[in-house]
């Protein structure tokens, strides 16, 4: 059983929160990272469910100012945060607005950090993937790299029995590895490795993962091994396999788009009633 954790200060001004989620029928943990900037404003990375308890905990550490969705798979509770923190700005990766037209966002996340946080947090875009782009961040004061699905490190504490069995069969249990979306849909190895080279220029000593145990040793080596595995898969794929994966990636987005359009239509109906 994966328990929902309290908001804890992992490093000065870096707070972590975990909760269980269901992905492809498997239960794994997901981690939200909150950084308190020098201004006192809160920068929220990959938001978890906004429970009453979490809302109270957030209020004790600062004001939520920036809500970050690092890739389009991490979209849970974004609407709740926008409603609860109407003054906060939502930042999305490219490709996300097309999938979630119901969300009002401030700006797209690009390869360079915006003025709101560039003095403390750097960022870059991981390219080469036909399904999504993931934005990776580097918090300079704590020397922490923040990744979402680029690396997972799922062990016993972050999985359930059935999930462990599935991960052992298909890969991804007990060692750092890229999420299936990176392993499957990264087809341009050159663009992908170029993104990794940019990340390796940063002097990070820890890697905070959205899924699994935080990495605090041999961090650059872990990233290099994971990246090489992804690139090798991309380079070895046949042309017909690439075509099939391209089609599959489009189908995988459809459920999200359908839910988004339904939510948008419901909002319009509510507004017309008002």
Automatic annotation (TrEMBL):
InterPro entries: DUF4336 (IPR025638), RibonucZ/Hydroxyglut_hydro (IPR036866)
Pfam hit, one: DUF4336
Origin species: Coraliomargarita akajimensis (strain DSM 45221 / IAM 15411 / JCM 23193 / KCTC 12865 / 04OKA010-24)
Matches recorded under SUPFAM superfamilies: Metallo-hydrolase/oxidoreductase
Protein's recorded name: DUF4336 domain-containing protein
């Amino acid at each position: 059983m994966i328990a929902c954790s309290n908001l804890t200060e992992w490093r000065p001004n870096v707070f972590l929160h975990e909760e269980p989620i269901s992905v492809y029928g498997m239960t794994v943990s997901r981690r939200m990272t909150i950084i308190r900037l020098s201004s006192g404003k809160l920068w929220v990375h990959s938001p978890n469910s906004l429970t009453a308890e979490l809302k109270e905990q957030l209020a004790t550490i600062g004001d939520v100012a920036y809500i970050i969705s690092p890739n389009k798979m991490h979209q849970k509770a974004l609407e709740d945060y926008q409603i609860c923190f109407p003054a906060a700005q939502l930042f999305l990766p490219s490709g996300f607005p097309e999938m979630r037209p119901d969300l009002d966002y401030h700006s797209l996340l690009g390869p360079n950090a915006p003025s709101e946080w560039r003095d403390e947090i750097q960022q870059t875009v991981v390219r080469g993937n036909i399904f999504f782009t993931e934005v990776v961040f580097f918090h300079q004061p704590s020397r922490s790299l923040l990744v979402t699905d680029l690396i997972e490190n799922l062990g016993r504490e972050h999985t359930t029995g059935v999930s462990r069995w599935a991960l052992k069969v298909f890969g991804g249990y007990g060692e750092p590895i890229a999420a299936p979306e990176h392993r499957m849909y990264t087809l341009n190895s050159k663009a992908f490795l170029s993104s990794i080279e940019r990340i390796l220029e940063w002097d990070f000593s820890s890697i905070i993962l959205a899924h699994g145990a935080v990495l605090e040793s041999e961090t650059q080596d872990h990233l290099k091994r994971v990246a090489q595995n992804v690139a090798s898969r991309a380079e070895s794929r046949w042309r017909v396999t690439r075509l099939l994966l391209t089609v599959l990636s489009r189908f995988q987005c459809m459920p999200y788009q359908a839910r988004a359009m339904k939510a948008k239509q419901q909002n319009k109906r509510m507004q017309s009633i008002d």
